[in-house]
Amino acid sequence: xKPAMRILILLSVLYSCLLLAADYPDPSRWDYTIGGFALEDxxxxxxxxxxxxxxxxxVRFWRHRIHDDLSPLxxxxxxxxxxxxxxxxxxxxxxxxxxxxxxxxxxxxxxDVAQNVSTEKIMQTFQAFISMVHKPLPETRxxxxxxxxxxxxxxxxxxxxxxxxxxxxxxxxxxRLIYIDVATPMLNKDGSIREDLFVTDQLHMNQKGYDIWxxxxxxxxxxxxx
Length: 226
What we know:
Elements: H1 3-20, H2 31-44, E1 51-55, H3 57-60, H4 66-69, E2 75-79, H5 85-90, H6 92-95, E3 103-107, H7 110-114, H8 119-134, E4 141-145, H9 157-171, E5 177-180, H10 207-225
Parallel strand pairs: 1-2, 1-3, 3-4, 4-5
Helix pairs in contact: 1-8
């Protein structure tokens, strides 16, 4: 990517962040973590065209098995716990653009709802994310993982269902956007949240929860990227 184009993209990202971040916490709180990713990039030297997986703690804690779960695809894990859609947008250059990935896996929306960000604001931020990816990388596919249900955030589930509905609708409008429904397999037949999928905080998933993610995400991703 040419330096001039990279500078233009960064300016666009910063402008978008100023417009969209009114209801979001300051994304600079992640500067140290993002700096760690930049250092890892220097050491590991990932290949251009690999697949970036980014998002909040559900992606971060997937790191210990994501390579096996999504094998034979090459994954660059870039999850940072507690993050939201605006944090990923703000740190787009280091997390995504510098790798020039052929595909991005994104899990956000969970913390956004918990931080009382409106559905409209979440969607605006996701659309800005899409634009920032597709300006320099128009063929890159974005796999958006549905917001998962959890016991500790059961009261927020109706708002999360609305976010998922909007995400799915947007993905249906563009073949480069793929919605992956991990939420439905995490519910009982009566629509209640399965209690056997979480660690003691009732928010983060145990191995059984990640088995659902593997079984739901891997076939879609491998079919699209192999």
